[in-house]
Please model this.
Amino acid sequence: MIEQGNPLALQLSPYGSFSNREQAVLDQFHHKQRIFPKGKELVHEGQAAPSAYILYEGWASSFKLMPDGGRQIIDFSISGDFLGLRSVFFRTSNHSIVSITDIKASQVTADDLYSTFGSCPRLATSLLRAASMDKAIAVERLVSLGRRNAPERMAHFLLELGERLMVVGLATEKGYDCPLSQFHLADALGLSAVHVNRVLRDFREEGLLTFRAGRVVYHDIEKLVRFCGFDNSYISQIRRLLT
Model:
């Protein structure tokens, strides 16, 4: 039985059922909770990072700063996601992580993780499978940046984000709350804020979706899927296992 208050358990549950002992280990991960305000940098590039975080509540982003001051957002993290996990294993962070909203996150050390891997190998397997999904998401983002035009890029990203949020119960087939600004979208999708505004306006006028006042609302999700060629199998197969 997965506790609805444990977002990490929700993220991992599609990859296998957990025993009471394994569930207790997942719950222990949330004992060292900290609260960070909006705009707080949790990890900076080049930092030695002996611990990671599990995002319990709120949104964060991972990014790299360019020599000219520009920013490339690598990913957005939602409830149940690890923050800085690679930094723990590779000892040094190759990107920075900042909170987009006020967040609640649980600190996890390398020793916590290694102990879990040794005592609960099935949890280690689940984490590996979750990391594989992260890889699939990264592949799609690379394709978007290299081959999809701006409207296709935007549509694919918003649909993918909705699928990810559904896994942890934060979205429906009608839409989801989203705190991202047009500047966030621009820095993630390689566009200008002006271009983002134009694309979102066109989507609204064409009756595809509306992104306004912190909420994405789908008006014609089937048409939107066809428009950008969105194949949700790499995420929806996880969501199907939850139902």
Summary: The longest helix spans residues 121-147. The two ends are 13 Å apart (CA to CA). The chain has a mean pLDDT of 87.
